Automatic annotation (TrEMBL):
Binding annotation for FAD: T44, S45
Domain of life, per lineage: Eukaryota
Cellular component annotations (GO), alphabetically ordered: cytoplasm
One Pfam family, short name: DAO
Binding positions (D-dopa): G329
Keywords: FAD, Flavoprotein, Membrane, Oxidoreductase, Transmembrane, Transmembrane helix
MF terms (GO), sorted A to Z: D-amino-acid oxidase activity; FAD binding
Presence of the UniProt keyword Membrane in the record: yes
Signal sequence range: none
Family statement: Belongs to the DAMOX/DASOX family.
Domain (FAD dependent oxidoreductase): residue spans on this chain: 4-343
Name of the protein in question: FAD dependent oxidoreductase domain-containing protein
Length: 355
């Protein structure tokens, strides 16, 4: 049976939830202050890496299950839907001695899982040598993963939504109750899905004080590489280095994970450190033999704010509202897992209201 649904928010979380609900046959209106194409500090999804690299620990089964279905979904898009802007690329994670938890490599639950392609621990000889640094690399994980060109993918989701009859309205919602009255049919929505990201802190007068930003400075560069990497940077607690080359060429370089900083202003000293690290750990970026410029060629310096939330994301149904926000640094990789939960919560609600 078709039900009337309003989805608040058109970031990757809201768009994916809307698409899943449409695929179940529901009549969906999206309402959002920011939509695909916007470049606005309030619209996190445009600034993401975005790759699949689960941050779940060994005992964090809930997060593992949120990330798991995204892997196969995005690998499939890369292979079969070139218009999605998703491609497959080998990924290397390097871990330092200080990062081991009880002697074990963190965030590596999926090494023992068969769903991740070509996953393995790296040999010592494959780790970067870093005699110049205090905290040596002692382990690494490599696997094939996806990098998603965010702008292309957000538009792709919207095109799929339109093709299925979904609608989108650009509007700021001031109060919870308003959302029910914004369904395109003119009738009241039966269920509202709240995918408001970081702005959940300000929405509706009932602000979620647990939502907070995790600031990430990024550089978009024209240089490309044949693999992506992620490593931490000793001496700079909230900094790390990641480089994700994209399908259309060029790469995104990050990153920082600075909690509670709202500023969208680029830190130029940090940008210099990021460029130096990129050259040091992935020299092919500046190798003319591989068609690259001999210098890092930055086309945008910018900042994104991950929607952090104390205690983790809120994914639950309260009456006829499904909350689905606060997924921090995992919004792309978890978008499929989250949307499957939204569909289940909606179904549960419609089943009950039938009784
Ligand atoms: C630097 C950086 C790197 C990242 N890298 C990765 C990565 O590699 N992999 C990964 O999986 N994730 C990554 N992320 C995380 C990912 O970007 C986020 O988790 C994801 O974008 C969150 O999406 P969202 O839809 O919840 O929020 P948003 O994209 O912020 O969307 C929120 C939506 O809600 C709307 N909204 C809010 N309030 C209202 C209101 N009152 N009325 C109407 N509309 C409203 C907004 O306008 C917007 O449309 C990264 C993030 C950053 C910043
Ligand atoms: C969405 O969640 C936020 C945070 O809890 C809340 O402030 C807001 O009122 C909610 N919006 C809707 C439509 O439920
Ligand atoms: C809803 O009802 C259908 C049909 O009875 C059933 O197959 C489905 O499992 C139910 N879903 C939930 C989440 O309760």
């Amino acid at each position: 049976m078709t039900h009337k649904v309003v989805v608040i928010g058109a970031g990757v979380v809201g768009l994916t939830a809307a698409l899943y609900l449409l695929e179940k046959g529901h009549d969906v209106t999206m309402v959002a202050k920011n939509i695909p194409g916007d470049i606005d500090i309030e619209y996190t999804s445009i600034f993401a890496g975005a790759n699949w690299m689960s941050f779940a620990q060994d005992d964090e089964i809930f997060y593992q299950e949120l990330d798991r279905p995204g892997y196969g979904y995005f690998m499939n898009l890369a292979r079969n839907e070139p218009q999605s802007g998703v491609h497959i690329i080998p990924h290397h994670c390097y871990f330092r001695k200080s990062q081991l938890v009880n002697g074990k490599v963190p965030y590596a639950w999926y090494v023992k899982e068969s769903f991740v392609e070509n996953v393995r621990y790296l040999e010592k000889s494959e780790l970067p040598s870093n005699e110049d640094e205090d905290d040596e690399f002692v382990a690494g994980v490599s696997f094939d993963t996806v990098t998603i060109s965010t702008n292309i993918y957000l538009h792709y989701l919207l095109q799929k939504i339109y093709a299925l009859g979904g609608t989108l309205k650009r509007k700021t919602i001031k109060h919870i109750d308003d959302a029910y009255n914004l369904h395109h049919s003119g009738e009241k929505a039966e269920i509202v899905v709240n995918c408001s990201g970081l702005l959940s802190r300000f929405l509706g007068g009932v602000e979620d004080e647990k939502s907070y930003p995790i600031r990430g400075q990024i550089l978009l560069i024209r240089n490309s590489a044949k693999k992506q990497l992620f490593l931490t940077t000793p001496g700079f607690k909230d900094e790390s280095l990641y480089i994700f080359p994209r399908k259309e060429g060029g790469s995104i370089v990050g990153g920082t994970f600075i909690p509670n900083q709202w500023s969208g202003v680029v830190d130029p000293e940090l940008a210099k450190r990021m460029i130096a690290r990129a050259k040091k750990y992935l020299p092919e970026l500046v190798d003319p033999k591989l068609g690259n410029d001999p210098e890092i060629d930055v086309y945008r310096y910018t900042v994104g704010l991950r929607p952090g939330r104390e205690g983790g994301p809120r994914i639950e149904r309260v009456g006829s509202i499904i909350h689905n926000y606060g997924i921090a640094g995992s919004g792309y990789q978890a978008s499929i897992g989250l949307s499957q939960l939204v569909v289940r919560f909606a179904e549960e609600f419609f089943n009950r209201s039938k009784l």
